[in-house]
Automatic annotation (TrEMBL), chain A:
The chain crosses the membrane at residues 15-37, 127-148, 179-197. It comes from the Eukaryota. It holds the Pfam family EMC3_TMCO1. This is ER membrane protein complex subunit 3. It is found in: Membrane. It is a multi-pass membrane protein. It comes from Phialocephala subalpina. One of its GO terms (cellular component) is EMC complex. Belongs to the EMC3 family. The keyword Transmembrane applies.
TrEMBL record, chain B:
It comes from Phialocephala subalpina. Residues 176-261 form the EMC2 TPR-like domain. This is ER membrane protein complex subunit 2. Part of the endoplasmic reticulum membrane protein complex (EMC) that enables the energy-independent insertion into endoplasmic reticulum membranes of newly synthesized membrane proteins. PANTHER family: TETRATRICOPEPTIDE REPEAT PROTEIN. The lineage of its organism: Eukaryota, Fungi, Dikarya, Ascomycota, Pezizomycotina.
Length: 261, 387
């Protein structure tokens, strides 16, 4: 079988200086800029007023009691159980006791919830706007250039990935177009940003995407659109059906068995 | 510093167990384990308390470098002194201001939480040793970074002012400042805690208890506050309430062996104070100590309490009255078990005292005062048996 002749394309070396380096540089600078923009735009962590703190922590207290009830004696547990179940069912810890039983407020009309959404929006905007601008800029100035040849062979499937914007059917997939270099930069500069800005920077999209996928458990628990009364009712039920096993029962025998002098 | 007899409660346990820690001490031990609540714990130990209740100097158990990242409250005085002597050098070597937005942060090392923790701990150490200038410098740098409106910094500034005030009048002024802050923003938790600590060091215990109860109503998951409340109640001889508070702590941190032991101590104090149901208290106290040893091998306080409770069960109470048990409470174990427990505790205490006074490397880290108290207990025991 005849050897496939190696494709050679004569490129102007200026391509390297005027396309490859500018794109890389601009990408890095945008990342740094985005980091600082996010830091500046970040709204301070939301401060809760006292009734809200009381509501949340009282619920936590119920959860703690349920999880760790075995540490206290049966009588102590009974006292706490009676008190908490009663208080939870009556809504004694609610932030707005008169709104009990009305269901969760609509998150769209709740100003506090809107604020949280605005924060999310800001984060997304800081990512989308520069992304769009730079994509447009590269399209306008550098589309259609083949800039480098990768030093390793690739299969034909990579053509669409590496040669975006260059519609040449027979060109070897090793050749890479400027737009593909841009896309590669988006995903490949993570470690550069880590080096420049520290590991918890806001420049990488990866972290942002992860963040938007799985919001923290705390946000789900006390987030907008959750009816605290429902949570209290559920917790009251959990506590009232709890079986109590006292840890101190037989501890002296356990100790005598385990301790060797 | 004046002695604080009120702290230990009026019972004879306190005098027998010279090593019974004041509340803040046991608190701090817990703290060593549960660093998560770091911020909270510090806020309660006022300057005066720091000096009054700091443990005696121990060996070079604490390495110099790491101690600045630890909460300073449980540092022995010698180490605190060492730290604060290094303060001027340390303050010079670190950059005077770090802004999160400056361009230079691109190539200089990134600021780390450790740096600010170091500043905070350095400030507390300096206040302990009276180096107010360095403390003020630390405070200023923290303020430059986080702003004067930061809640934690408001509390730190209050602490600084408490430390430099010489008399009660000045302290009262600080108290008024706290109240002014709280009137504006009642959800400022660090300042709320400082106010309670200040009330406590001004010896206004009833007010402190009221304030703590108010605070715990809105923040019932604060283990530190519950423990502090339990301690204040114990100092007033209100053991029932104190026990309740410690049980709440256990519901939040069920594996804190020092809290188990502390609860055992309070139960024992309740038992010998002649309250109704001494039987029940003593049995539970014994089991609490057992549990604390189960959670932490060779726990000196646990064995000490175990020996004390078993000794009392063996000698003091006639067998007959022990039979009258209520249905919901575990009765005391039978006398044979109690005897075996007593023997175990005695043997273990002897071993711990022997090995750690000999200076065995693996047996360091025990509190000297606690060792002395354990030794004294063992000595009284031998005197009794020889007679």
């Amino acid at each position: 079988m005849a050897q496939v002749p190696v494709q050679t394309i004569h490129r102007d070396p200026q391509l390297f200086y005027w396309i490859l380096i500018p794109i890389t540089l601009v990408m890095i600078l945008t990342g740094v800029l985005r980091h600082y923009a996010t830091v500046l735009m970040a709204s301070a962590p939301k401060k809760f007023d006292l009734p809200t703190i009381r509501e949340q922590r009282s619920l936590m207290r119920g959860i703690n009691l349920r999880a760790n009830a075995n540490a206290v004696s049966p009588s102590s547990f009974q006292v706490r159980k009676d008190y908490l179940v009663n208080a939870f069912e009556n809504g004694a810890f609610l932030k707005e006791p008169d709104k009990k039983g009305q269901g969760a407020p609509n998150p769209m009309t709740d100003p506090a919830a809107m604020e949280g959404m605005m924060g999310m929006m800001k984060g997304n905007m800081a990512m989308i706007v520069p992304q769009t601008l730079i994509m447009g800029w590269i399209n306008a100035f550098f589309s259609g250039f083949v800039i480098i040849k990768l030093p390793f062979p690739l299969t034909i499937k990579f053509k669409s990935m590496l040669q975006a914007g260059v519609a040449t059917r027979d060109m070897d997939p090793q050749w890479m177009s400027s737009i593909s270099w841009y896309v590669l930069c988006i995903f490949g500069l993570q470690s550069v940003f880590n080096y420049l800005l520290g590991s918890d920077n806001a420049a990488s999209q990866m972290a942002q995407q992860m963040g938007s996928m799985g919001p923290g458990a705390g946000a789900q628990m006390f987030g907008p659109g959750v009816d605290p009364d429902k949570q209290f009712q559920g917790e009251a039920e959990n506590i009232s059906v709890l079986a109590h096993h006292y840890t101190l029962e037989g501890v002296e025998n356990r100790l005598l068995e385990s301790v060797r002098v | 510093m004046e002695g604080s007899p009120t702290k230990e409660g009026p019972t004879s346990v306190a005098s027998a167990k010279s090593s019974v820690p004041s509340s803040s001490l046991s608190f701090r031990n817990m703290h060593r384990v549960f660093t998560a609540s770091r911020t909270a714990l510090k806020s309660f130990s006022s300057y005066a308390d720091l000096i009054r209740s700091s443990p005696p100097p121990s060996s070079s158990f604490y390495a110099m470098t790491s101690s600045l990242l630890h909460p300073p409250a449980h540092l022995p005085p010698t180490v605190a002194l060492q730290l604060s002597q290094q303060a001027p050098i340390l303050l010079q070597s670190t950059p005077s201001s770090i802004s999160p937005y400056s361009l230079s942060s691109l190539w200089s090392a990134a600021e780390s939480p450790e740096l600010w923790m170091t500043y905070e701990n350095l400030m507390l150490s300096c206040l302990r040793t009276g180096d107010e200038e360095s403390a003020h410098l630390c405070l200023e740098r923290l303020t430059a970074r986080f702003g004067a409106e930061n809640e934690r910094l408001m509390a730190l500034r209050g602490l600084f002012q408490e430390a430099i005030s010489d008399d009660d009048a000045a302290l009262k002024q600080v108290l008024e400042e706290y109240e002014a802050i709280l009137k504006k923003d009642s959800s400022n938790i660090p300042v709320t805690k400082r106010r309670i600590a200040l009330l406590k060091s001004l010896k206004k215990t009833p007010e402190a208890i009221t304030a703590l109860n108010q605070f715990l109503d809105s923040s019932p998951t604060d283990a530190e506050a519950w423990a502090e409340l339990a301690d204040l109640y114990a100092s007033q001889g209100m053991y029932q309430q104190s026990i309740f508070g410690l049980e709440e702590v256990l519901l939040i941190t069920p594996y804190a062996w020092n809290i188990h032991a502390r609860l055992g101590e309070i139960l024992y104090m309740a038992a010998i104070s002649g309250e109704a149901g001494a039987e029940k208290y003593l049995a539970e106290s014994l089991r609490r100590f057992c549990r604390s040893i189960e959670l932490c091998d060779d726990y000196l306080r646990g064995y000490y309490g175990l020996k004390l409770t078993t000794g009392r069960l063996l000698t003091g109470v006639p067998q007959a009255s022990r039979q009258a048990k209520s249905d919901s409470v575990l009765a005391a174990p039978d006398s044979k078990t109690v005897e075996r427990l007593n023997e175990t505790a005695t043997a273990k205490l002897t071993e711990i005292v022997r090995l750690s006074t000999r200076g065995d490397a693996a047996w360091g880290g025990y509190d000297k005062a606690e060792l002395i108290a354990a030794k004294a207990l063992l000595d009284t025991d031998t005197v009794k048996t020889t007679r």
